[in-house]
Amino acid sequence: MASRRKARIYAMQALYSWDVADPSLEELLDFAWLDPHPGLDETLAFSRLLVSGAIEHIEEVDALIRDHLDHWKIERLAKVDLAILRLGTYSLVHQRDIPASITIDEAIDLAREFGSDESYRFVNGVLDAIRKDCAG
Fold first, then answer.
1. Predicted TM-score (pTM) of this structure
2. Tell me, what's the pLDDT at 1?
């Protein structure tokens, strides 16, 4: 598993935790729940960038998600799906050096692995709509 892939998994889990348990940003970025292993520091650097960026821009990120939900309210979304959407939306808008296709593909993979059976389709649809609106 590539370092960036792991970083996205850790970031998604941290955003989920932030939404469910409301830890401080310091606690969240500590990633104390992870067992140390070779390469962890490098992986966590990217995770921390994703988590802190998503939380710093949470109002903008959530507004974009809300604007692209058809017949859904953000409060009714599964917490895992919301964490994935927040991560993907932040990346699409604020990490333009990463191709949108990679951001969306990674979000789809996270949704397949951690979400419900239909999560990946839902995540794909919302992020693709955000990508189209934010292009250019």
1. 0.94
2. 47
